[in-house]
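JOB MANIFEST
job_type = single_chain_structure
chain_count = 1
residues = 280
[input]
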Amino acid sequence: MYNQTPLEIMKEFSASSFSLSKARIRLDEIYGNFSEFGVQHLVQETISGVDCYTTNYKPSKINSVILFVHGGGFSLGSSIGHRHVISRISELTQYKIISVEYSLSPDKKFPSQIHEVESVYQHLLENYGCVYIIGYTAGGNIALSLCQLKDIILPKKLVLVSPPTNLSFINSYDNDYSGDWVTHEKLMSLPKNYLVDMLDIANPMVSPTLNNNLRLPETLLQVGENEILLPSVLEFYNSKKAFNKITLSLWENMFHGWHNFGLALNSAENAIKEISEFVS
């Protein structure tokens, strides 16, 4: 059905010299080509002044909702691009999902994204009895920042998928991750685009691993064993597991963002099912 494997496609994308605007379009196209769900499965709406997308069919569980924070390295990605993950989880859980179209960097910098997600989250807390959060890749970093805000009410459960938890990425230089499409160069561009001041890398709101007092709800932490972010994710897990209930889920041979390739990878469907069962 496909001339290239998902990993080959993503490596080609990573090596391209697209402008930022074209890269945003192309990434959404790639993910969309491997989704069984069309763009019509998501409906745009504004919540607390923030653009969002929501699943367009009525779920059977109306008292619970999932807040989805998409990935894309802070500068790429969209709800539409992640529609396979969003729609499939909603289908399996029968929960409504609200995905936040937070401002991308470098158009807006930290902490704008956190405040936008917080505005939507507070609205959901006021209108639903139970709120879950799924933070996908860079969205996992934003979700962890949200959980550190003063007086914040934590979600019922938290799902983190391959979150960048220490934006120094110092551990990612330990090995050669040829089984991933994200490169060291791509990693180092994240804080440069996201932050006004590179010194903020040491801020726990940017690098949650550095928060020794971080307290989380029950959390599922997924990461692919071939990911360049694996050492950073493991460092986060090992530093937080003593005081938090975190389930670490390692996925053999998987690369960054594999959930978006639902039509090509059994592991994408199985990882989505694991997430759905965790929040159900």
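[summary]
The first strand starts at residue 42 and ends at 47.
The chain has eight helices and eight strands.
exit_status = 0
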